[in-house]
Design brief:
Blueprint lengths: L2 E6 L4 E10 L2 E11 L11 H14 L12 E5 L11 H16 L5 E4 L23 H22 L12 H17 L1
Parallel strand pairs: 1-4, 4-5
Antiparallel strand pairs: 1-2, 2-3
Length: 188
């Protein structure tokens, strides 16, 4: 049963899920949402300071490289350079965070995953994501977040789960990380 450490990346806030997968059976060992800059705005902090904050967090984290179970596979959400009109500084910053995670975990099996891969996961027929390409992008993004959150809630209700209490508004970040690990496992 492989163990995955999966990361959902953003510029200021990121999330991880540590999950064991055995076919259609799941065990969530941990998951958190991390705010690298609590109380600060993105514009207030330069790249070096942000990188230093992430490095400090990783060194002491429950998912630091030396604390992971042997054989853990690290999955990092690949950040596109630009997301059309939704892109900009935040997207470039997310790419920097993903790259820093890749460098940090380079001694372990480490893979980048397309952020759209999680949309192909359907744990049950009712949890199938169907993309409405005619809808505005903000509605499509909301539907994708609802899909991964519902999928994580299904896992939490039916399989062992050791997630700490996470605010409902932030659960979708851990959900993205969990479901992209399942997407990766299904393809490998």
């Amino acid at each position: 049963m492989p163990t995955y450490l999966s990361w959902d990346c953003a510029y200021k806030t990121l999330a991880f899920c540590l999950i064991k997968i055995d076919g259609d059976a799941y065990e969530i060992l941990d998951g958190q949402v991390i705010d690298l800059l609590p109380g600060q705005q993105i514009k207030e902090v330069d790249e070096h300071t942000k990188a230093k904050k992430l490095a400090e967090w990783l060194a002491a984290a429950p998912v630091s490289a030396d604390k992971l179970p042997a054989g853990t596979i690290v999955i990092i959400e690949k950040q596109p350079q630009r997301l059309g009109r939704w892109g900009g500084a935040t997207t470039y910053g997310s790419t920097a965070v993903a790259n820093q995670l890749l460098f940090y975990y380079c001694g372990l099996p480490c893979h980048l995953i397309d952020p759209k891969a999680k949309n192909k996961v359907a744990l049950t027929p009712e949890l199938l994501y169907e993309d409405d390409k005619t809808a505005p992008e903000y509605r499509r993004k909301s539907a994708r977040k609802q899909h991964t959150t519902a999928s994580l809630q299904y896992i939490m209700a039916n399989y062992p789960c050791r997630l700490p209490k996470i605010k409902k508004a932030l659960l979708n970040h851990v959900a993205d990380a969990a479901i992209q690990a399942i997407a990766f496992d299904a393809r490998h």
